[in-house]
Design goal:
CATH topology: Jelly Rolls
Number of strands: 8
Oligomer: single chain
CATH architecture: Sandwich
GO molecular function: DNA-binding transcription factor activity
Structural class: alpha+beta
Number of helices: 3
Distance between the termini: 43 Å
Organism: Streptomyces longwoodensis
CATH class: Mainly Beta
Strand content: 25-35%
Number of domains: 1
Largest sheet: 4 strands, antiparallel
Helix content: 25-40%
Radius of gyration: 16 Å
CATH superfamily: Jelly Rolls
Order of helices and strands: HEEEEEEEEHH
Pfam families: cNMP_binding
Protein name: Regulator
Length: 154
C-alpha cells in the first residue's frame, strides 16, 4: 500500500507518522451521491481521498444545504472525529465516484494516546485542516448570502 502524501495542511505528516496512520487504513469506494456523513451525527471514521471528489456541505435554515468546499486527491475528509463530542460539524457527499482510505476514529485516537508524539503531529495536521476549512466556509457563505463582493479576504 503506497502511503499518500497527506495534504490539506500547511505541512504534510512526516513519513514515520504517515506510515503509522496508513497502518490503520482500509480501502473503500463510494458511488456518486453517497452521503459519507451528516451534520450532527457521530463522527466515528474519516477518509483520505485517493480518486474522485467529495463535497462538504452545511445546513442553512430555510434553504438547501450549501456546498462549502469540494475536496479531491490526498485530501482529508472529516476532522470532527478528533475533537469531543465527536459529532460531524458539516455533511459530506461523493460528488463523483470516490476511492479512499478509510480510518476508524477510535483506533486512531487510541494510537494518539499511546504515542504522544504521533498524537501531537495528528493534532497539528487536523488543526491546520480545521483552520483552512473555517476560512473556506466563511468565504463561501459570504459569497452565497452576504452583500456582493464580501467574501474576499481583506
Amino acid at each position: 500500500m503506497n502511503a499518500p502524501v497527506l495534504t490539506s495542511t500547511p505541512r504534510a505528516l512526516p513519513a514515520e507518522h504517515r506510515q503509522q496512520l496508513m497502518g490503520l487504513a482500509r480501502e473503500v469506494a463510494f458511488p456518486t451521491g453517497t452521503r459519507l456523513f451528516e451534520e450532527g451525527r457521530q463522527a466515528d471514521r474519516f477518509w483520505i481521498i485517493r480518486t474522485g471528489t467529495v463535497d462538504l456541505d452545511m445546513r442553512v435554515p430555510g434553504r438547501r444545504a450549501a456546498v462549502i468546499e469540494t475536496l479531491g486527491h490526498n485530501e482529508l475528509v472529516g476532522w470532527s472525529w478528533l475533537l469531543a463530542p465527536h459529532r460531524w460539524r458539516l455533511g459530506a457527499e461523493a460528488a463523483s465516484p470516490v476511492r479512499a482510505w478509510e480510518f476508524d476514529a477510535a483506533a486512531v485516537r487510541a494510537l494518539c494516546e499511546a504515542d504522544p508524539e504521533f498524537g501531537r503531529v495528528i493534532a497539528q495536521w487536523v488543526g491546520g485542516v480545521v483552520a483552512r476549512r473555517l476560512q473556506a466556509a466563511r468565504t463561501r457563505l459570504l459569497d452565497l448570502y452576504g452583500p456582493h463582493g464580501s467574501g474576499g479576504l481583506r
